[in-house]
Design goal:
Layout (H helix, E strand, L loop, with lengths): L4 H15 L6 E7 L5 E7 L2 E3 L2 E7 L3 H8 L2 E8 L4 E11 L2 H10 L2 H9 L9 H14 L11 E6 L3 E6 L7 E8 L2 E7 L2
Antiparallel strand pairs: 1-2, 1-5, 3-4, 4-7, 5-6, 6-7, 6-8, 8-9, 9-10
Length: about 190
């Protein structure tokens, strides 16, 4: 038993990276608009540790608009092959400009160009329009580095709760809940 949920998460995530067939870093991200209407989508976890859980996106997207209006979110990572899941929720803060720049620079060039070409979450008349915009960005940045677009950055969920769920026979699942208390964590168990 550990009293550090981030150490437990690191262990589970490391195991998932070796055993989960597809996208062990995929997580469901739930946000809500200013009126409390929820929406959920899959994003990729790009960083984790005591500071929280990090992902990157177009800030002009639906999720970006919802996070601007209501900076709280929940995530769920489900590793079917391990029969485990981790849920966390809390306030959301933007990553630093330096962190966003560093991560953007690590992406494949076509992914960088796609970030410039996409008006994420906006209506698209036909896919060829997006492909044309992509080709325009290839020409625009030909021969040079692709800078991070001003509308593209990252967010970090600073969890107030983290729950670890492990499957057990006959629905006798194990649920461990870590709740932030001052500068540490309190652990409790939940009925399945």
């Amino acid at each position: 038993m550990t009293t550090d949920p981030f150490a437990l998460f690191a262990d589970w995530f490391a195991e998932a990276r070796t055993k989960e067939i597809n996208d062990p870093d995929a997580m469901a991200l739930a946000t809500a608009d200013a009126e409390g209407r929820p929406s959920v989508r899959m994003v990729l976890l790009k960083g984790h540790g005591p500071e929280g859980f990090t992902f990157y996106t177009n800030m002009d997207s639906r999720k970006g608009g919802e996070l601007a209006a209501n900076p709280h979110a929940s995530i769920c990572l489900h590793w079917k092959s391990l029969r485990r899941q981790v849920r966390a929720d809390g306030p959301v803060v933007p990553v630093s400009e330096a962190a966003a720049d560093a991560y953007f620079a690590s992406r494949a060039r076509d992914s960088q160009l796609g970030a410039w070409a996409s008006e994420q979450s906006r209506r698209l008349d036909r896919h060829e329009t997006f492909e044309q915009r992509f080709e325009q960005m290839k020409a625009r940045f030909a021969g040079g580095a692709v800078p991070r677009p001003p509308h593209w950055s990252g967010y970090r969920i600073v969890p107030r709760q983290i729950e670890f769920w492990a499957d057990r026979a006959f629905r006798l699942h194990e649920r461990r809940l870590f709740t932030r208390v001052d500068d540490g964590w309190a652990e409790s168990l939940l009925y399945p």
